[in-house]
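Action item from last meeting closed. Structure (447 res):
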């Protein structure tokens, strides 16, 4: 349990405020070690490095990682179970693995993520660091309302326990049961998805519970969807609960939360002691400069069970290495969306997050939405469906026009159609992640 001074804003001040020159020196030391470890112990890396004509000794600077081949989700699926239960990317014997999580399988076959004891302990220390960063202290009561069934975010509750908070292992409870816990135990912090945080607050109000007055939630941690980093969505949740919202970012491929907001909400500080970040062009794979938008590529620096060398995340964004007002020196990632979700209309790149930002900022609608992507005359189009507030006197036509105009102003291309439903008319509400995109296209729109 933590014995840290609760008035200290940092979990590990020396690490979090380390000068970048010193941080990058440590990154290089760990990079050299993990690349050699992967080459010597994981059959896939030995084969792929040899085929690419590179070897661990080629790394002299952090930039030298660009000489090495990429891997992605397909690599994980193709090597999983090959040669051993854990597959050709695994670099340790099975008896050294103490925990595995799996991905959701939303983009294909679920992939396993193994951890050694050291991997797992360092993972949880990072979670403690993020919890402390958003203001959690041993005096807090914390509800972990995330899936515990194989999901990598489930064990993150241990990071809160190690910090010293009173932890309630909520899991994926029905909303009525979770509201009962919030009323009965009066926790101060909860972690769930952005869409569920919104829906839970709305359900509380409909049940006669005022989240601001009747509950004690002061901080809401969200992850699993982009909403926590969309200003309009974050503000809507904050206004509903009277609580501050912090976004966390994680990957089942690495560990629970790999990055998190600080109090300034200007990007998510990423654990650069564990992850080397590159940004590459989504078409060519060319490495971009810090600050340029592209696909984020991560190399794990300390995870030994399954090292990930140049893993293409599929997330589009950029990294900011400039100093943050909070005093932390680790870079901040800004996520625009998923490469898989982006679509192009009239030569404009459109991310669902851009549409969400508009919808959540409009008055008179509930904030629920559904996007349909389809073809007309061999070109890509999109339509949006929204819900009208039950007390909104405006006509459906007026709401549709206002929504269409706002989307055109923000994104640059208006929707083919805006369809307006009554409150509750969209089947997008979920206990956790919500499905908001339906792709009806038949042509190949790969980017």
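Sequence:
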């Amino acid at each position: 349990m933590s014995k840290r001074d609760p008035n200290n804003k940092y979990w590990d001040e020396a690490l979090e405020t380390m000068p970048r020159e010193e941080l990058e020196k440590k990154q290089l030391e760990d990079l050299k070690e993990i690349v050699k470890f992967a080459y010597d112990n994981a059959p896939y890396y030995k084969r792929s490095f040899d085929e690419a004509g590179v070897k661990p000794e080629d790394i002299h600077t952090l930039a030298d990682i660009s000489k090495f081949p990429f891997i992605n989700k397909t690599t994980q699926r193709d090597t999983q179970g090959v040669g051993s239960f854990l597959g050709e990317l695994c670099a340790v014997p099975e008896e050294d693995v103490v925990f595995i999580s799996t991905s959701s399988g939303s983009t294909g076959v679920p992939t396993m993520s193994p951890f050694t004891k050291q991997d797992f302990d360092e993972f949880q220390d990072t979670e403690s660091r993020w919890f402390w960063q958003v203001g959690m202290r041993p005096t807090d009561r914390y509800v972990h309302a995330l899936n515990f069934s194989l999901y990598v975010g489930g064990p993150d509750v241990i990071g809160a326990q190690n910090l010293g908070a009173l932890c309630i292992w909520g899991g994926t409870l029905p909303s009525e049961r979770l509201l009962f816990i919030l009323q009965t135990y009066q926790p101060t912090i909860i972690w769930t998805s952005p869409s569920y945080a919104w829906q839970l607050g709305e359900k509380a109000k409909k049940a006669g519970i005022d989240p601001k007055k009747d509950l004690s939630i002061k901080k809401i941690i969200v992850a699993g969807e982009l909403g926590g980093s969309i200003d309009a969505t974050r503000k809507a949740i904050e206004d509903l609960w009277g609580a501050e919202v912090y976004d966390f970012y994680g990957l089942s491929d690495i560990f629970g939360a790999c990055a998190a907001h600080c109090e300034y909400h200007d990007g998510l500080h990423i654990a650069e002691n564990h992850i080397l970040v590159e940004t590459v062009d989504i078409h060519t794979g060319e490495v971009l400069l810090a600050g340029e938008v592209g696909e984020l590529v991560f190399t794990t620096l300390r995870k030994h069970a399954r090292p990930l060398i140049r893993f293409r995340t599929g997330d589009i964004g950029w990294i900011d290495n400039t100093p943050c007002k909070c005093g932390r020196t680790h870079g901040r990632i800004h996520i625009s969306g998923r490469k898989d979700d982006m679509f192009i209309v009239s030569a404009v790149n459109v991310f669902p997050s851009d549409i969400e930002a508009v919808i959540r900022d409009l008055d008179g609608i509930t904030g629920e939405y559904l996007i349909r992507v389809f073809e007309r005359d061999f070109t890509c189009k999109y339509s949006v469906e929204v819900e009208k507030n039950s007390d909104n006197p405006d006509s459906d036509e007026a709401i549709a026009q206002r929504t269409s105009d706002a989307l055109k102003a923000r994104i640059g291309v208006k929707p083919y159609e805006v369809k307006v439903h009554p409150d509750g008319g969209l089947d997008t509400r979920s206990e956790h992640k919500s499905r908001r995109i339906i792709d009806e296209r038949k042509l190949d729109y790969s980017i």
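Note appended to the action item: The mean pLDDT is 91.
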